[in-house]
Design a protein that fits this description.
The structure holds three protein chains of three kinds. By secondary structure, chain A is mainly alpha-helical. Chain A has helices spanning 4-13, 20-37, 72-77, and strands spanning 82-83, 86-90. In chain A, strands 1-2 form a two-stranded antiparallel ribbon. In chain A, a hairpin with a 2-residue loop joins strand 1 and strand 2 (86-90). The longest helix of chain A is centred in the N-terminal third of the chain and has 18 residues, at 20-37. The radius of gyration of chain A is 22 Å and the shape is flat. The two termini of chain A are 36 Å apart. In chain B, the strands form four sheets. In chain B, strands 1, 2, 6, 7, 8, 11, 12, 13, 14 and 15 form a ten-stranded mixed sheet that branches. Chain B folds into three domains: 5-292, no CATH class; 296-416, no CATH class; 425-481, Arc Repressor Mutant, subunit A, CATH 1.10.10. Chain B is elongated. Chain B contains 15 helices and 17 strands. In chain B, 39% of the residues lie in helices and 18% in strands. In chain B, helix 5 (298-309) runs antiparallel to helix 6, helix 6 (313-321) crosses helix 8 and helix 9 (375-386) packs antiparallel against helix 10. In chain C, helix 5 (145-152) packs parallel to helix 6, helix 9 packs across helix 11 (341-354) and helix 9 (293-308) packs across helix 12 (360-380). Chain C folds into two domains: 3-296 and 361-486, Alpha-Beta Complex (Amidase signature (AS) enzymes); 297-360, no CATH class. By secondary structure, chain C is an alpha/beta fold. Chains A and C meet through helix 1, helix 2, helix 3 and strand 2 of A and helix 9, helix 10, helix 11, helix 12 and helix 13 of C.
Chain lengths: 94, 482, 487
Amino acid sequence: MIDREEVLHIARLARLRLGEEEIEPMARELSAVIEHVAKIGELDLRDTAPTSHVVEVAGRLRADEPHQCLPREVVLAQAPAVSGEGFLVPSPQA
Amino acid sequence: MTTTYEPVIGLEIHVQLLTRTKMFCGCELSFGEPPNTRTCPVCLGLPGALPVANAQAIHFGLMIGLALDSELAPRSIFHRKNYFYPDLPKGYQISQYDEPLCRGGRLADVRIHRVHLEEDAAKLVHVGASGRIHASDASIVDFNRGGTPLAEIVTEPDLHSPEQAGQWLRLLRATLRHLGVSDVNMDEGSLRCDANVSVRPEGSRELGTKTELKNMNSFRFLERGIRAEIARQEGILNEGGRVVQETLHFDPGSGEITSLRSKEQAHDYRYFPEPDLAPVAVSETMLAAARQAMPELPSARAVRLQDSLGLSAESAHLLAFRPELGDYFEQALQSSPDSTPSAGAQAQALANWVTGELAKRLAPEESPADSKVSPEAITVLSQMAAEKQISVGAARQVLDRLVAEGGDPRTLVEQEGLAALDGGDELRQIVRAAIAANADAAQRVRAGNPKATGPIVGYVMRETKGRADGAEVTRLIAELLG
Amino acid sequence: MSAEELVSLGAQAAAQALASGQIAAHELYEIYRSRAAADDLNCFTWVAEQTPAPPAASPLGGVPLAVKDLFCTEGVPSQSGSRILEGYLPPYTATAVERLLGAGACLLAKTNQDEFAMGSSNENSAFGPVLNPWDRSRVPGGSSGGSAAAVAAGLTPWALGTDTGGSIRQPAALCGIVGFKPTYGAVSRYGMIAFASSLDQAGPLTRDVTDAALMLRHLIGYDECDATSLDFPGEIALPTAERLDGVRLGVPEELTGEGIEAGVLAAFHATLALAEQLGATVEPISLPHAAHALSAYYVIAPAECSSNLARFDGVRYGMRTEAAGDLTEMYTRTRHDGFGAEVKRRIMLGTYALSSGYYDAYYGRAQCVRTKIVEDFRNVFADVDFVVTPTAPSVAFPLGSKTADPLAMYLNDFCTVPMSLAGIPAISIPCGLALPPEDRNVTEAASGGGLPVGFQIAGPAFSENRILETAFALEQAIGFDGGTVRA
């Protein structure tokens, strides 16, 4: 149902590297689950609205008032790589 | 024979809103603070942190909708737009998708498609390869800007030339600035514009394939970029090729257009309703507050200035769409001592002084309110000139002094002895002397060459330090030589 | 009081003893701290090294508290059971934890869990599986497996857990304790490392219903940091009911038949009979879409998780696998190395369900099924007060017995997922013991009497107090004794 190409495409979208040996089992397991969940396709849901928030709460907004920011040393403390004042990452352009 | 093409242009404008705090957290907006000092668990996307929408940002969004004559949605939904990039801490941007805050609308002759709210990305600074172990390119992320509230305004494809696009964007900027919802500064990125461009054979009603031109950061670049893209598309079509739908970047330096599409970008943003935020319900109270906060919009102001003050269309437009001039003008007008029978003419004269001589003497974006020239001073100056108490030349000199050091024009005129010389004996004597000193010129004038008065007038002006009224001088010359 | 006597006190009893000065907070804490430190069930990912200063006069007066790893606790490892967050020290504390500490609880330990709360056996933890104190060859359930096992084994008076599709109720059932998933929005999610935002909800895992009520009392309430949190109407009372006169229990045919172990069904029916003796009426009902709840859940939860877990990208916190300067390589390798197999599977599943061309067929439809399930419950609550089911279709199963088959593992959530989708409150209380199917030929004596079975009671939104009263009356009548595993 879900083939190798599709697995690789989804993995790319999800930024997940899959080892060669992981691809086939992933395709198999995903297919099994998707086959099961696809049963919801049998239901007649034409007149049914989707529920994205099970409890409708409205108007919970935040007043435009500043709070205390975190000190930079705390902000950077947990980062795998920092440089001076910021988080260091491989360049997206590279 | 080559086909003539008609460009079809739509704009997508991102405006940073001038709230105190970010879209979904209480961090103050950053204006050049040291990197990563305006952050918290929410805008850093720390595990467990949750967004809460800023009421003021929604208020500003509603004001924009009202200004653009949009339909305001009683209920709108935030969605997650999923993609990976280091400037996007959560791996998704909270934005609006199929249920935006405002739909439809119009500004001048351009229809608005929608207005929605979202959060800005962080800033990525490329630092190159220096000093790194693997000597590979690196960037540094600064999250101060991340989470700044943005309104995205999308137009319908109703624009048909680069100039029209530029002009309309100026109109939008003036409108937004007047609302006070944003700095709308293209240099600083608080106003950013993308353009969707396509061309079609003249007369055709079908739309051609469009491309998206990204992030042109000045009016000049916007117009040049669109012009270049139109030319590129026409070139392709004229050679029998097909325009590919893609995202493009215009390099103002080289004038080149390059594709931004990379191998990794299989655009699939996987939008879905943001489960961490309840739908935004716009209450009557919120609507009323937005209406209450609406200032007079430039287009309405232009009409009013023209109708009730009798200003020329050009002056009214200038004052309305540069609200800093308009506000100053109206304040100056109020300081007029009384309404005289010639009020209309006076208002026009004052408008001319404000939009002409004064504006010319200020820095490009400087507001006259921030200058040393008080509204009362410009009014007095305008009146003195109108009543010929001083000559135009003298008035300009006084204005120079006012801009430099402020003060009362009357005092300056007195101190400098700039009061106009009337047509009395003193001026007649000076004109006589001028004719005597310029016999050649006088001879040519007598011979029927009126343009030859130049040196004589110049002599008079020098002698009087510009106090003489030009028309009076000309009359006297004619009389004495006639 | 002797150490055994102190440990035998539930949280409410301990709070009372502390308030009356009968026992000292540091003494109680030190006993639990040494028990937790000596834990050989792998319940904990972190145990306090020092006894905190006793709190000033407060409702909880220093009762020790274990907290599921996924709650952010400032300066204390908060890893959500994942390698990708190993050693992560948050700069802030989750609201739910803050509230309990504010009421006088003392943080004792962080509990092991399935990675990012994805799992029903606690075998998906990067820090190893938790063992069930009733039978160490078996799972404690999941994802709050460490919390459930620690409470059952008496390593903490109580614990805080989270429930997305059954992650409080199912491990509570499998470990013979009480677990309560409140109404969605009743407890703030701020600081809970998210699995599926529209379903996640914090709640208590306790030895008895009274303790569950006590913890709930201090957990609930609107939090300005969580836009989906709600003002809870009224307060949570400590339950006192002895009878169930006039209480109508609805038994949904869809969740009480096929797929449920015979032993579990027997214990369930025995409890129904007991309820009737206390004055309740028992009626068959139908939740027509319940059979599709699991499918909808396994679309919605993975979809949300695929987005929630995008932030683990090796940039700001957690682990990173360096990859020679290429950003995409850094992302994909970090996430490959940092996430476990089940998490990857769900990220893949959710990404697929949201992706272009599939959204309508999967995520869109699942949200509509969710609407149907909400309607199903609304309809039955017009006729009955509560919906009751077995909490889990089986008793605790042997470690490793379902790890090879994700779908079989997902079926554990069969009875708990519908309530999660509807956002309604539900409790699981121990209702007896049952032999596992593979032991049916073994005599009861040889298996030590069997393994715990959970009885689930679900009510409409904000019916917490009524659920607690009903559960309390049943608990007293059942007289379940979990004390043996605390020895």
